[in-house]
Target: Aquaporin SIP2-1
Amino acid sequence: MGVLVNVLVHGVLGFSRKDTTGDIVRYLFSVISMFVFAFLQKLTKGGLYNPLTALASGVSGGFSSFIFSVVVRIPVEVLGSILAVKHIIHVFPEIGKGPKLNVAIHHGALTEGILTFFIVMLSLGLTRKIPGSFFMKTWIGSIAKLTLHVLGADLTGGCMNPAAVMGWAYARGEHITQEHLLVYWLGPVKATLLAVWFFNVVFKPLTEEQQEKPKAKSE
Model:
């Protein structure tokens, strides 16, 4: 979706890539696109487009949920990304080659891992703290994702989505390279597992304790 936003802002609307106004407009459309995907997720009752979100949900949901995420959801998301990039390149052949690693492999893996850790932690926290507020949850999540993306854009592309990167890497024939697997898969996946574990160990007991206090008082 980010590639199409770039086409809209710089190709259709004509903003320069070095223009601050163009960056602001691009960020605005990025937030709007995240709201659209959040609405589609709500409409489909849990549809996802990021393997890391599916993995976090699967790990938190138990063994059967984990198996379903790994065997069904994640492969389908990757396949969808590959097909989407193929059609995008067919329609917009001048569009580019997707995210690019501009640092050493281990530095890139660490960067994607740190970005992923924080966004997964935030997603878990929003789901736990404000489960019913669609607008507020989506707004906070969108601004956080955009901020983390900007922080990592010049290093790794700030992707935090292995499926999205996989589509472009497959189109370039680089989907089984060490760079792609370590930076855009291994780093984020390990960070996701660490974030889920850390959240359940540190924050989940606090949340349950806060929920039990009103019950004790009412009794």
